[in-house]
Amino acid sequence: MEWAACRHAQELAMRRVRLTPRGGTGIGEIDLCQGPTPENVRYYERAVRFLGVRQIEVKLPPPVGFPCFLCNDCHLPLRQSARSAAPKREPALPPFFDADREPQEILAELRVEIDRIDSEVHELLMARGEIIDRLIAVKARQGGGSAFRPGREAEMMRRLAERHRGVIPLDCIESIWRIVIATFTYVQSNYVVHADVSAGDAAMRDTERFHFGFTVPFIPHNGPAGVIEAVARSSGDLGMFPVDGGAHVGPWWTQLIGSTAPKIIARLPFVERAEHPAGMPVFVIAKPLQDAAAREEVLYCLHIERSWDGLPANIKKIGGEIIGNVEDEMGLALLLAVPKNVYPDQIRNALYDGNILGGRIDEVGCHASRFKL
Asked: What is the domain partition of the chain in residue ranges?
């Protein structure tokens, strides 16, 4: 069997894993040009056992017709020839399984490899911290700037969800990354998360801890108004409250009107899916961001004189959604979310079929598009 014809090698190529015929495995020297010697077989098996955590660069192609040690079709015959095993063919063993070694030996070796990976993860996190130190210094030279980058964070979480595979649940990976991002942001510039717990302290606290961890301070408030006021008074805090807080909390989004008022900068979770451990949709507010906002969806406060049954369908036609609908002293205050390429005039046109007079339209925030699995 030639290397190119090996289905397992093709599968590895699909995973972008590259094999080194000569050295570079970090486990032992290997020279396939010498043929299937016992040493080569052993080193090769140990190398490929950990391919999921290591990329290995191709340096020299193996000789044509030389099998790969990996797939069931050629793994056992090669191992038999290399170790002078009985010529009788036995049922193929699963890849990476070595029947000639004691389980205790294999387990001890695997635990050593786990410890090595843990150390590398820690080293990489500390290296990330060093980059943050440099980032802080560069920002100071250009006059500072917000540490929050909601657009970048949303894109990071999308890439994470798309490339994730293996036995570890995505919930675990997402939580780790959210805490890493939130904590390193806190290191750059200390901040507090103010949260509306009027709909239930436990659910909101779980959501806040999932997305921001335990390093970032958490301050509860009994309603959106207290959250918005606290963020407005702060130098750089965040606020968080449920997307659907109910009519009893009032039209809180009207407090976001004005160039200096806090604005919605994110909708969490970034990756929506069934049975998410922190799946309650929440808005995050902050003081206005200049160049870091994610403007894939824009939120507007729209005042109209009265309601109309056909309004949700008309807003949907332009790709929008009515998030909030509460009466106030000016009539009816709506919170709308529309794509970035939908402008206020198009929103007003959606009112004409119902002969509804629309008042002022004010932008109250923006966020990344919802990403669903």
From this structure: 3-98, 101-144, 147-297+362-372
> What CA–CA distance (Å, rounded) separates 39 from 29?
9
Q: What is the rounded distance in angstroms from the CA atom of residue 155 to the CA atom of residue 133? A: 23
Smallest Cα–Cα separation from 300: which of 245, 260, 268, 257? 257
Contacts of 365 (CB under 8 A, 6+ apart): 256, 263, 264, 265, 283, 285, 298, 299
Instruction: For residue 55, give the nearest of 18, 84, 21 by alpha carbon.
Output: 18
Q: Distance between CA atoms of 211 and 177, rounded to whole angstroms?
A: 9
**Mean pLDDT score, 133-156:** 82
Between these two residues, 139 and 188, which has the higher pLDDT value?
188
Give whole-number Cα distances, 251 to 224, 314, 337, in Å: 9, 22, 15
Question: Helices 150-163 and 170-188 meet at what angle, rounded to 10?
Answer: 150
Confidence of residue 268 (pLDDT cuts 50, 70, 90): very high
pTM, entire model: 0.71
